[in-house]
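## Example record

The block below lists the input lines for one assembly entry, exactly as stored, with component labels intact.
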Amino acid sequence: MDLIRCIHAAGIVGCGGAGFPTDQKLCGKFRYLIANGAECEPLLRTDRYLMREKAPEIVRIMAALAEFLQVECCVIALKDHYHAELAALRKAVAESGADVKIFELQNFYPAGDEQMIVREVTGEIVPPTKIPAAVGAVVDNISTIYAIGEAMEGKTFTHKYLTVTGEVAHPVVLRVPIGTSLQACIDLAGGATCRNPYIMTGGPLMGKHVAPEAMDTAVVTKTTSGILVLPEGCANESRDRVSVEAMMHRAKAACIQCTSCTQMCPRHMLGHPIEPHRIMRKMALGGDITEMLSDPIVQSAQMCCECGVCEVFACPMGLQPRRINGLLKKELGKARIRCQIPEQEYTANPEREARKVPSRRIAARDGVAKYYDYEITDLISAEQDTVRIPLQMHIGAPCVPCVAAGDHVTAGQLIAAPAEGALGANIHASIDGVVKSVDSTIVISKN
Ligand code: SF4
Ligand code: SF4
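Predicted structure tokens for the full assembly:
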């Protein structure tokens, strides 16, 4: 089977992002293949674990993928302070003789943003709102590369590596079946060490809050890169508590138009014409949001990657340009409006190097510095008796189930697939067992 069909059959999606199907992403002609080992969310350690412990496999997979895609340049990019990981990868490259380059990134946030990593590795700037393929690059994170390697061996995407950290007894990297409950993962990390924890999936800067009432059904999906347990009243919770109305009111009352959000914006520094302070000014003027959507300044919110530098690091008034941009992006999407991007060559701001935000400093501003310096050396691999597997873990439409309640399934068996012609990724049973129910999730239990 050709590699793209193999990846499609395995149901692989980007492991840390929005869940774009990997087989679709790899269809095309590329000059650069980049493995993203930046793991730029400050507290996550999953990709670092894989680069350290599975370096020969990762180098082998990258070499095979590079040969299949016929790229000119195959690169693994990781931070310059990941000493053990750099040593392991360099040793693996030397021993295998593979034509895989190791690229050292500075420790800034968001070094792992695809647009940033392409600029760092190739020197090219991906035009605003475009993907790296626009400059002949394809970027996959390390967990995704590792999953591709398993697909090459005929395995389907049934298990997930993820970090559990923050206010837990033992921060840990886990390997668990997709559909494992978040609470089970937290228990594997020794449990929460604070009362009323604020729980997020992903990292502290771009992760998503999981409400306490959702914890009963919240599970590890194909895109869950980590679970973060933070204390009650943490900075993320304080920002979340501000209602949309209050956020708009604050923008009107307190934005001093200092332009700090624009000057520190990583996308603006790449030369993209996004200026969050101007978006804030428009919002401060008030009015009906749907009427504002025709304004090109409001439309420029689509160039925002929602990294959070503006609100966590730059704004001296505690305002939330990122959240406002996220809101505008949703409204623009609903109205099917795309911002007009001038066809031109984009050049980075000459001050970009000086304005890169050190990861440690943004972690401190976000109130998570105490979890920043820790090493995770061990992996806990834990099977489960029950899993709840969502039918939507990818961009596109939910998958269509091909099993029913009462069916016996085995781990790796196809249980749902995208509808004919729809964007999506196959879903497989992650444990042996009996299908208990099928609705928006498929519940499988061993007994
Ligand atoms: S979240 Fe803020 S800093 Fe990040 S890209 Fe968007 S506007 Fe720029
Ligand atoms: S940094 Fe804050 S106060 Fe300054 S322009 Fe941006 S939103 Fe307004």
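Residues 265-267, 276, 304-310, 321-322, 325 surround iron/sulfur cluster (ligand 1) (CB under 6 Å). The chain has a mean pLDDT of 95.
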